[in-house]
Every structure is written in structure tokens, then in C-alpha cells.
Design goal:
Strand content: under 5%
Structural class: mainly alpha
Order of helices and strands: HHHHHHHHHHHHHHHH
Number of strands: 0
CATH topology: Growth Hormone, Chain: A
Largest sheet: none
Number of helices: 16
Helix content: over 70%
CATH class: Mainly Alpha
Distance between the termini: 39 Å
Radius of gyration: 20 Å
Shape: globular
CATH superfamily: MFS general substrate transporter like domains
Length: about 400
């Protein structure tokens, strides 16, 4: 809900596309800068305590944003500061969350667990934007931001009630040594850094411009917040469908499947660029949602099956850092480039890139040759010992 509310709060206060780009980028920049630190914390300390601490930061940021929009027309610097604080919370939370999953379920259930996580996240994407669009029209964007702050309080309570067996933490070595160990594991898997690079370019050229220009296109051509809320909700519905399709199904070539479905990520930008009828835009959003769920589930399962448990947070932080580092650039440049060209030109370029890039990725042996792990595969070694046969991915 918060993303929809924040976008339209800025637009309704007379903010420009450049303002919108800067605010969206302000969340990603601290997240990118602190992801490696979040990974270190997740491997050094109990993850169930790191995550509530991160959520406390997000309660503060969302509450203050809601208050500012309730009482005034907030200056741009205050929005950048508070949205940045939210990004700090995300950087601390996500690596610990990804690292905790293998400690909650047996390895044979990791695939279905990731699919269920994708379904639950997607369910919030369905209800959240639809409710946000309604509340924005009926009440105000600030009310949606306040509700979002309350949701983080609920998350804190749920995490504190969680009972899991204490996981082994990283031995007391230097921070630099731990980062180097995580980097060695990351680069040892060719398929991992290839897909990370693929996702980095996707965020730069495709998704960042879509996040900035999609709401603006909806405002110009489809009636504003309600239409955009519907599109985002249907993206979430597609994600739910993708998660359901994966339950009980484990593809033999997970990265081939994930790359093929990722062609559908071009659909949202392509339909908006063409100013297609709203039902067509909605179909494109559903297709992209399916791609998101399938790609994320297969990617995370492949990592969790191949990376030692005591290093997952660090490796996942490298994946996230590489994937999102270019995102702020895309967010910051999308508005200004669209201003001097057009929204359709920027979105069309993104859709074209996604098709060409995915076709190229499918030709690479590291992607085609990765097979799913057997349920009886041997347990991974600890992160300080890297098997020689993993050096080629």
C-alpha cells in the first residue's frame, strides 16, 4: 500500500516527475549501501532479533511520513530523509529473512516454502494496492501510510513470538574476512553472478522506469490512482498464481524456466508505452506477476540449496546489492529522460531490452546446465571451505 500512497501523495501535492524519481531513489540508495552490513549482522547475530530491530526503523519512518502529509505540505528533503530511513530498515531486514528460511524447514521443503512465501507476499500486493487506491480517493494518502506503519508493528510482534532452534553464528573473525568469504562463495557460482547481473540491468532499464512512469501514465491515460491500484493489485494476483503453479512442482532446469517466464516482465512497460486499453494493461500486469513469483522462488531455492547456512545472509546480500545497485540510477533518471523525450519512449526501451537480454541469457551453458538438487543431496560444507568443483558454477 505504501508505495501507491507515497507516489500519489507526491503527485497530489504538485510534485514533478523528477521529485518522484528522487524520492523513490532515496529508499534504494541506503538499502544498497547497507546491504552487506545487513548480511554480516544476519550471519553474526540471531536473525529473529535483527529483523524486529529493522522493523522498528520502518515504524518510525512510515509514521513520520504519515504525520507530515496529514499536517502540511512536506519539503522534499524531509521525504528523502524518511524514505531513506525505510531503506535502512529494508537493508537490515531482508538478508536475515532470507537466511532464516532454511532453519525453519527441511531442505526437501525449501522449494514449497519459498513458493508459499511468494504467495503470501503476493496476497498483500493484491489487497494492498486495491485498498490503497480506494483510501486515496475516499480519505487521503496519509491514511494509507499510517496503516502501513501499523503493519510493521504487527510484524515485530509476530517475529518476537517466533520460536526456532538457535542457528550457528559466524565465528568471531574480522568483518573484512567475513565479507571476503561471502564474496568467494558468490563468485564461485557462475550462474549466480550471471543472474544477478541480469537482474541489475532489469532494475536499471525496465523496472525502475516502470515504477516512476507507470503511475504517471495511469494519471494521464487511465484516470489516476484507482486504475494504477488495480494494475498493481493484478500484478500481485499474478504472483499468487505463479506461486500456486510452483507448489509441488520442481523443474529439472530451474534457471531455464525462470528465464523463460521473465520474458513476461516486458509486458507492463510495453502495454503502457502503447497506451493499450486498461484491460490489456491488466493482463500484462498479471503475466509479469507470474514471472516475478516463479523467478524469485526458483532463484532463492537454488541459492539455499547450494550455499552453506552460516553464509546465506552474506551471499544473499551480495545478490541483492548487485541486483539493486543500479536501481537508484534508473529511478533518478527515468523522470528527467521522460521529460525530454516521452513516457512511451522510455518504457518501450525497457521492454525491448528485457526481450533481448533474456534471449541472450538462455544461450549460456551456466544457465542451461544447472539442475535441481536431489532431496538426498549431501549437506553443504561450512563457508570457510569451498569445494573445487563449485569454482566453475
Amino acid at each position: 500500500m505504501a508505495s501507491v500512497a507515497l507516489v500519489f501523495a507526491i503527485l497530489h501535492k504538485g510534485g514533478s516527475l523528477t521529485d518522484l524519481s528522487c524520492v523513490l531513489a532515496a529508499r534504494i540508495v541506503p538499502m544498497v549501501l547497507l546491504l552487506l552490513g545487513g548480511g554480516l549482522l544476519g550471519d553474526r547475530f540471531p536473525r529473529r532479533w535483527v529483523m524486529p530491530s529493522a522493523d522498528c526503523l520502518r515504524v518510525v519512518s512510515q509514521s513520520m511520513l504519515a504525520l507530515l502529509f496529514f499536517v502540511s505540505d512536506p519539503p522534499l528533503w524531509s521525504l528523502l530523509l524518511l524514505v531513506g530511513l525505510n531503506g535502512v530498515g529494508e537493508a537490515l531486514f531482508q538478508p536475515s529473512f532470507n537466511g532464516m528460511i532454511p532453519s525453519l524447514v527441511p531442505s526437501s521443503d525449501l522449494h514449497d516454502a519459498n513458493a508459499l512465501i511468494s504467495i503470501s507476499r503476493s496476497a498483500t500486493r493484491v489487497g494492498g494496492p486495491a485498498l490503497a487506491g480506494l483510501l486515496i480517493v475516499v480519505i487521503a494518502p496519509a491514511a494509507v501510510l499510517a496503516i502501513d506503519a501499523i503493519s510493521y508493528l504487527i510484524s515485530i510482534v509476530a517475529l518476537l513470538c517466533l520460536r526456532i532452534t538457535a542457528s550457528m553464528t559466524t565465528a568471531a573473525t574480522s568483518l573484512v574476512a567475513e565479507l571476503k568469504a561471502g564474496w568467494r562463495l558468490f563468485r564461485a557460482h557462475t550462474w549466480l553472478w550471471i543472474t544477478t547481473l541480469q537482474f541489475a540491468m532489469f532494475n536499471l532499464i525496465v523496472w525502475a522506469p516502470y515504477l516512476v512512469l507507470g503511475p504517471a501514465a495511469a494519471d494521464q491515460s487511465y484516470g489516476g490512482a484507482r486504475a494504477w491500484g488495480t494494475v498493481v493489485a493484478l500484478y500481485g494476483a499474478g504472483s499468487i498464481l505463479g506461486g500456486l503453479l510452483l507448489l509441488g512442482r520442481r523443474p529439472q532446469q530451474p534457471l531455464v524456466v525462470s528465464t523463460i517466464v521473465a520474458f513476461a516482465w516486458a509486458a507492463p512497460s510495453a502495454t503502457l508505452a502503447a497506451r493499450a486499453p486498461l484491460p490489456v494493461v491488466c493482463v500484462g500486469a498479471v503475466a509479469a506477476g507470474i514471472a516475478s513469483s516463479v523467478f524469485t522462488t526458483l532463484m532463492h531455492t537454488s541459492i539455499q540449496e547450494r550455499v552453506p547456512p552460516d553464509a546465506i545472509s552474506r551471499v544473499m546480500s551480495y545478490v541483492a546489492l548487485g541486483s539493486y545497485a543500479a536501481g537508484p540510477i534508473g529511478l533518478a533518471l527515468a523522470g528527467p529522460i521522460a521529460t525530454v523525450s516521452s513516457i512511451s519512449v522510455v518504457l518501450s526501451a525497457g521492454a525491448a531490452w528485457q526481450i533481448v537480454a533474456n534471449a541472450t541469457i538462455l544461450t549460456l551453458p551456466a544457465i542451461r546446465n544447472l539442475r535441481r538438487r536431489s532431496d538426498t543431496a549431501p549437506k553443504q560444507p561450512q563457508s570457510d571451505s569451498l569445494p573445487e568443483n563449485e569454482a566453475s558454477g
